[in-house]
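Feature request, filed as a ticket because there's no other form

It would be nice if the structure record came with a short human-readable summary line next to the tokens. Right now we just get the raw output. Example of a typical job, pasted below so the devs can see what we mean:
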Amino acid sequence: MIAKNRAPNPGKRVTVVALVAAALLLGGCHRPKKYESTVEITRLSVVRQDETGAPTTTDVEFSYVECPGTQTEVVRGGKDFATCVGQKLKVGSRAKVKVLHRWDPEGFYNYDVFEVEGCPRPPDPNDEASYKIVRECADWTVNGSKVGFQCNYQNKKDVNKACPWFKSH
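Raw output as currently delivered:
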């Protein structure tokens, strides 16, 4: 049997290269990003204590002072977090938070606060006590007179421009 020399199929090569390039690009689209922001502490609450009275679970409520609108968040943390924030934070003080913005398997972006003023807070996937309220509020004007305010919830341009971890799409 004699082997024939075949010319490579350029169309097949281009298709393979295009598929590899697309896979690399799509993989890069959903890379997690870390951000840091300043918040104002609005509430510190010990949720649980051990038998000696030491906190084992604490909620920290804060608002993002660098973001337009009103963004309120409550994060709950365990014993190490509770001890750390109890020593460092006071209601009304400002603190730095570190945020991880990542792609969620459900098909949207989400974020978690993983550190508050140097106090590590490993996010718990089963945590149902932490929550986020992200909105952009402005005066509501009718016939030239301010009659109240109107709030738009998440995915608004000004909020996402200043604080990109709020983007969900």
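Something like this underneath would help us a lot:
The domain at 33-166 is CATH 2.40.50 (OB fold (Dihydrolipoamide Acetyltransferase, E2P)).
Residues 50 and 56 are 6 Å apart (CA to CA).
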